[in-house]
């Protein structure tokens, strides 16, 4: 069964736009190839370099670049729907591309100047971007120990980052650090250039192949001038969260597809079962249907969330007053927080109950069915949903606006530790 046939038989809902099927059709054969090796990569912890090479060749990273500039001109609902399809094939890939699409989103909506032209050209050439934002150790919340500093006639980056997701597969790294005047600043560094080392030391129990480990910068050269992060796209938090929602949706769909196939092929049953075969057992079929329903609901929530992010993008590039654009960004952030809170539980539930439709043999490591829950749990640990629930409640009751930047580190009142 092809990816297209799988999508049609699963009833995930209508496409997000009239042009989506034509756009998705370009990439579905590639997604099918990626899906074929996903379980073996998971078992062997084999980093997906060939998959990223194929995505680069297909210029998948240029989805958001306007067609007039050599890209595919995908809307944000189209983008997140495609990321969900990619996640259904292998959920490591869209997470590893999260920083890429964040950089691309900021670039596409930026003023048409020399900087934008340079990076649009790289995006349409197929280049991929990783990210280096978070720091561990004694770093304080909101303060980066990584420095973006003058180096000769240009600029350099010095410091150590963790959670540099996707950087091993990237051509460029989007780095955030502290500028010469103490301001939060971003810079672009060549991923294969001198003065940096990317270390595959991510050891989480899920999303094992995202290369979310360390990157060490030692006066690494910056291409062009640094850019204050305050000037970058203000709906970034909502955008990055929407990538997680799309990835979680793909995980749920993969769980639904795999439990369906396992039940269809399974001959063994129990003496107290309600059917001669699992495929005719109404209780087993109920579990399969429930997993499909959870996956469907995740996709529906993701689509609505994507529409909120699209409105924020439209406000950025349109002739919208600053106050109105800010209000749209607030609504997008609240919508994404609400979506995250509910969708996370749906997908974790899908990754758990699928085993109720199968026997003990389904827990064998060769099938890697446990990866769905592990991967969903790992993604759900980003930007904890307990805080999102509180923020939504505070907005609903008190009108308190949500924060527009999620940062992690030690409280300034503490010292030491990790």
TrEMBL record:
Keywords linked to the UniProt accession: Oxidoreductase
Name the enzyme's class: oxidoreductase
The record's SUPFAM superfamilies line, in alphabetical order, gives: Acyl-CoA dehydrogenase C-terminal domain-like, Acyl-CoA dehydrogenase NM domain-like
The biological processes this protein is annotated with in GO are: fatty acid beta-oxidation using acyl-CoA dehydrogenase
GO MF terms held by the record: flavin adenine dinucleotide binding; medium-chain fatty acyl-CoA dehydrogenase activity; oxidoreductase activity, acting on paired donors, with incorporation or reduction of molecular oxygen, reduced flavin or flavoprotein as one donor, and incorporation of one atom of oxygen
Top-rank taxon, per record: Bacteria
Mind telling me which InterPro entries this protein's record contains?
A: Acyl-CoA_dehydrogenase (IPR050741), Acyl-CoA_DH_C (IPR013107), Acyl-CoA_Oxase/DH_mid-dom_sf (IPR046373), AcylCo_DH-like_C (IPR036250), AcylCoA_DH/ox_N (IPR013786), AcylCoA_DH/ox_N_sf (IPR037069), AcylCoA_DH/oxidase_NM_dom_sf (IPR009100)
Q: Name one Pfam family in it.
A: Acyl-CoA_dh_N
Using the record's annotation, list all stretches that form the Acyl-CoA dehydrogenase/oxidase N-terminal domain. Answer: 34-127
Under Enzyme Commission nomenclature, its number is 1.3.8.7
Asked whether the keyword Plastid is assigned, the reply is no
| Entry keyword Zinc | no
Please list the residue ranges annotated as the Acyl-CoA dehydrogenase C-terminal domain: 244-382
Report the sequence similarity comment from the record. Belongs to the HpaH/HsaA monooxygenase family.
**The protein, known as:** Acyl-CoA dehydrogenase
**Can you name the source organism?**
Methylobacterium phyllosphaerae
